[in-house]
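Write out the bound-state structure for pyridoxal-5'-phosphate.
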Amino acid sequence: MYEFDTVYDRRNTNSLKWDFAEERHHSEDELPLWVADMDFRAPDPILKALHEAVDHGFFGYTAEKTADRRIVTDWLKRRHGHAYDPEDVVFAPGVVFALTQAMHAYTDPGDSVMITEPVYYPFRALVRDTGRTLVRNVLSHDDAGYYQIDFDAFEKQITDNDVKAYILCSPHNPVGRVWTRDELIKIGEICLSHGVLVLADEIHADFIYDGHVHIPFASISPEFEQGSVTFTSPSKTFNTAGLQIAEVLAHDVNKRDKIRKAINKTGYAEIPVAGLAAIRAAYTGCDSWVDEMVSYIWDNIRYMKQYIDDRIPALRMRLPEGTYLPWVDCRGLGLDNKALEELIRNRAKLWLDAGYIFGESGGGWQRFNAACPRATVEEAMRRLDRAVNDL
Ligand SMILES: Cc1ncc(COP(=O)(O)O)c(C=O)c1O
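---
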């Protein structure tokens, strides 16, 4: 029904992905597959809603109603099976912004906050930038690139460091794990037994493949729901990061009040009018678009995996269970981080996210972005093939 093959020229549109090579010290001829921004146009209902808002011509203050919070909870119930209460929803301009406010809301300066690396690098920055103490738990993995939490180390780090909050990335960017119910139960039981608040970033929840199921952390039990705060957004699913709207879900009234106060304290009082129009359209009229888009990306991911297996055997890629960000093991090339980056940027002419930026344990890996037309993935694979096989 929908078409994802068209390659749009996104240059000269103020796109962070396509227009900031010089500012970010990359060269213009690197094909960008880095930041988690999709090269698909937003679905028609969102475009229509935004056109209507523009045509009307008024961009004054706005605010959300209970009906808007219900649109969010209906979407989450329909797509992921958990019924939050509309009252649980607090809007924010972004997940990173909201997680930053969560530091202020739920922890004190100097408190320990744990993350599990390799992980989305702004987590590290927001913990440090708010003056909290970063505790880095590290995932273990086998030769095939299957990552798991070492629960003994996880618990020991919590008790040794008196951790107050844990940022859970579910599904996990960049290693592509969709945590199982058993894993989430273990995470939750350990955190709850030590009084650790779970901040569950579920922004990638709509990108799930091959029979895996995203289980909202809060859905596991009433205790987990009370002992956690969830962060989500339409920004990955509908590529609306530039519209600056995201959601915090806090079932416990105290936690909800605290995050609302922390957000208000920043002076950010009203949500953007374009973001509200987009959210209403996204969460009510785009289910079939999302289904097809995710299945298109899954085909891209399988194409990439097959290409690497067949033509670039020095690299290894495990099919991700979730996210649109394949994580490729380049350690077989025997290059240090600098030499690997040189190969990717200057020879392959690709702009990727180097693994080490997600934490030291990501060294030797590269993160790709498969949310683009097939032709772009094919071009990226050809470039990678030539550069690696010329070595
Ligand atoms: C795990 C994770 N959280 C948050 C974000 C960014 O969210 P936002 O743009 O709403 O701050 C990303 C973007 O890639 C992400 O991967």
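---
DSSP finds 13 helices and 15 strands in the chain.
The first helix runs from residue 16 to 19.
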